Known about the structure:
By secondary structure, the chain is an alpha/beta fold. The chain has two domains: 4-276, Rossmann fold (3-Layer(aba) Sandwich); 285-366. It has 16 helices and eight strands. Strands 1-2-3-4-5-6-7-8 form an eight-stranded mixed sheet, with helices on both faces. Helix 7 crosses helix 8 (177-188) and helix 12 (278-292) packs across helix 16 (341-360).
Amino acid sequence: MANIFDYIAWRGDLDFSVSPFNPVDNIIFSQLSYLSLDDIVPDPDGKKGIGIELALRIFNEKLHSPQGLKQASIFKEDPDLIKALGSSRRFGDCHLFGYVNHVDADREIQFSALCVYIGDGTCFVTFRGTDASVVGWKEDFNMSFKESVPAQLEAVNYLEKMAPMIDGPLRIGGHSKGGNLAIYASARCKENIRHRITNIYSNDAPGFQNKFINSDEYAAIKDRIQSYVPQSSIIGMIFEHGIDDIVIKSSEMGLMQHSLYSWEVSYNDLVRSDNATASSRFVNKSIKDWINGLDNEHRQQFIDAIFSILSESEMTSFQELQKSWFSISKKLLKSIGSTDENTKKFISQTFFDLLRSAKQNINTLFKHE
């Protein structure tokens, strides 16, 4: 059960001209996008980029300084990845530039992106997935009733700004919401940029509403999308992708399979599985039926009500819940208690509808495909 660390050990001494870019490189660069590289990697207006070895060395120094870095690493394996990438020939020579990181609670946007010159004449544009912020998760849920959310529009603007600065073909990718942004930006960018895109990587990313899936823009890029999901995928099964997903084996169970660090790899590829697990199909069918049973107004009211409770509890990130779960839980209970009766009934009924959908799809757990 090899993972990306084994891959770096196997392929770390081979540059991309010797061993061509493959799907494992995609998940490594997608994971790299989660690092807080503010004041390390130049923004889109910067004239120069920075080598990945130097960038990660500076990041590591800041990470272990007395001041530390706020939310610098949200995955426990990130420090080991930094060390492995910086010391490898394959990745140490890559060049980082065009880093942006925007979180705005008022606009309900959480957006970050990064460009990586690979060394084979191509550039990988990677979009960050949802971080631990409440506003980031709120934006994700807004996808259920909005044709587009601010991060998707920002992704299009980012790609259209960066592409003229980049020579050669483009690869676009990301993990979780980042994979959704990769597809959206590729479809909605200018046609001359779209023609330069060779591959679009969606790694366990939520899909889209049918209007987007049925659009001409999506049809134009459909054959270049590689949508990967782990066996017990939940996040990647939300909404529609319009293509067949490629199921990947993971060393973890359940929701923990969402982590790219758990995905199994070979020397130059991700390890495939025959199909998704019964539990994944059950959750997928239950959630989709539940969402399809709610109109857009109902979806918005439910999501706004839930996140209003979170906002009143003064919780700004889910990391706070992990670190101070007792005090945050008390605030959440207080916020729920102060909610008016109509809202309580509305939330309860909507959750009841979800449970009813699960009950109706219970046979999915026992159906072999």
